[in-house]
Amino acid sequence: MSQTLPSAEPGTVAPAGTPKKAALASFLGSAVEYYDFFIFGSAAALIFPTVFFPNADANAAIMSFATFGFAYVARPVGAVILGHFGDRVGRRKVLMFTLLLMGASTFLIGCLPDFNTVGWWAPALLVLARLCQGLSAAGEQAGASSMTLEHAPDNRRSFFTSWTLTGTQGGQILAALVFIPVLALPDEIKYGIGWRIPFWLSAVVVIVAFFIRRTLHEPPAFEEAQKTAQIAKLPVADLLKTHWRDVLRVICCAFIAAVSTVFGTLAISYAKTVAGVDGTTTLWLVVGANLVALGTQPLFGRLADRIGRKPVFIYGALSSAILTPVFLLSLESGSVPLMFLAAIGFFSCGYAASNAVWPSFYAEMFSTKVRFSGLAIGTQLGFLMAGFAPAIVAAMGGIKPGGWVQISVFTAVICTIAAVSALTAKETFKVPTQQLGLK
User: Fold this and answer.
1) Phi/psi class of residue 274: alpha, beta or left (left: φ > 0; alpha: ψ in -120 to 50)?
2) With a threshold of 0.85, does the pTM exceed it?
3) Using CB atoms within 10 A of its CB, is residue 74 exposed (0-12), middle (13-18) or buried (19+)?
């Protein structure tokens, strides 16, 4: 981490737990989730076409990317189920469950037989494990963001919740560093046991996060809701009755997450197929951009606590749209320094603004009794765009010569939708936590 998490300031609503511990637990939980998701995305681009779809020829890449998207199909279902229990029985219990499910699913992917061993059962089992990953992810970020926001002082909510998404950068960095040596292995090892090792190593991250998260208490806002009998019997019903506009707004804003999959998954395939950039170089691009984002995202979080959520989020969305073609064309330049500069500008200084702010921006639209459900359902429906972005753009010809145009247009459209949707939201950075989401 590039910054030290500060203690809560006096003069704000005093949290019952420790904001720093909640932020750290959220950071590690997101690191687990995105370590698991990124190694799957990298494998989908570089390994799975050979291991699970050896007879698919030209369609292997599309089929492999489709397995990446299947997790996003499970996410909305998981959001309803986990959101219900998160608002009914507590954030902490659900977060413990999601952590263990994600870890177990990822470890088992590393144990799957390949196509040459069991035929089409191999990709079928891969999809099943991927669906379990998606079910877990549906509750992880929503629960972590809700818990951290509700523990944080009123005037620093965006900074503390930004560590939830900064954890995604930590997970992506770790995943890329683990995957880079795998790509250097001889093919018989790489496509044999080599690609499995990163999936097995996820167990280490899960164990560390588990022991930190188990010591957390429920946030004071949720405990107060329990004491005053403000817990919703059917959170989803209450959510759709009182916050349906906010759910729609979050869905559209959450399209911005597709930028991350364009950068971390689709661009790897584009660089390899069209620009002839080797997989190791593109993974180092991901590491470099995410390392810088470890520093920029907390700064964007601080900025949102000073000037508001909306301007920072909208800046991130529009700059992502503008910088996508710059990054893609840099991959065709042959200049590695230029690729790194473009990657850092696009991801660390552009997209990172939206990524840092959305946990507080979305969560503050909802009241305590439906916050977990609202955040989970809204984001997971919106994240469907992120999940299938690689397969959609690949089907449009985005990983063929000249495909930077299709990728750039796709990214510009989803970023514009997110920015316009954010404009319609209320600014909440000066609203006390207890009054958030009240009509």
Assistant:
1) alpha
2) no
3) buried
Per-residue tokens: 413 = 């459209």
Rounded-to-integer distance, Cα 191 and Cα 182, Å: 9
Percent of the chain residues past pLDDT 70, beyond the cut: 94
In the structure encoding, which two tokens stand for residue 338, read together? 């230029």
Pairwise CA distance, residues 393 & 45, whole Å = 13
Instruction: Give me the residue label for tokens 């990214």.
Output: 411
From residue 147, give the alpha-carbon distance in Å to each of 32, 45, 278: 17, 34, 41
For residue 166, the one-letter residue type is: T
319 band by pLDDT with thresholds 50, 70 and 90: very high
Measure CA of the first residue to CA of the last residue in the chain; give whole Å: 38
Please say if the pLDDT value at position 418 is more than 90: yes
In whole angstroms, what is the distance from residue 182 CA to residue 362 CA?
38
For residue 381, give the amino acid letter.
L
Does residue 313 register a pLDDT over 90? yes
> Any idea what the Cα angle at residue 202 is, between residues 107 and 147, rounded to 5°?
110
